[in-house]
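To illustrate the input format used throughout this study, we show a single complete record. The first block contains the structure-token representation of the backbone; no residue identities are included at this stage. The design step must infer an amino acid for every position from geometry alone.
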């Protein structure tokens, strides 16, 4: 194998002023990409659920539905603050009896999510 065939390529990254090195194989990079796709799929599923609930349970039409910024909600310090923000955003719902259930379920589902703000 003098031509280098079959060798695993690695990338080195220097960190900080100390010059310590971290090596990352192609296999690690593939796992990172898979993780990112999984996070995106989870976020998409949450947004689709939320859009359906806003229409079906709360009774909003697409034109009158409020904008719920999940990243902004997740950045709040407490679940109580998240719930208050959600309730305020959907307070004009045609079916106000369902606001509390929607709020509680969304706050619960947000526990497993991470903000996608970079």
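Output of the design step:
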């Amino acid at each position: 194998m003098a031509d280098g065939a079959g060798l695993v390529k690695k990338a080195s990254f220097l960190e900080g002023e100390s010059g310590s090195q971290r090596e990352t194989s192609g296999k690690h990079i593939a796992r990172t990409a898979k993780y990112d796709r999984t996070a995106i799929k989870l976020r998409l599923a949450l947004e689709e659920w939320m859009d359906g609930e806003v229409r079906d349970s709360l009774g909003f039409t697409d034109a009158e539905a409020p904008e719920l910024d999940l990243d902004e909600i997740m950045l709040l310090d407490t679940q109580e603050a998240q719930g208050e923000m959600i309730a305020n955003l959907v307070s004009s719902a045609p079916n106000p009896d369902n606001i509390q259930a929607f709020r509680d379920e969304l706050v619960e589902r947000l526990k497993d999510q991470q903000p996608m703000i970079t």
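Structural context for interpreting the output: Residues 73 and 82 are 6 Å apart (CA to CA). Confidence is low (pLDDT under 50) at residues 17-21.
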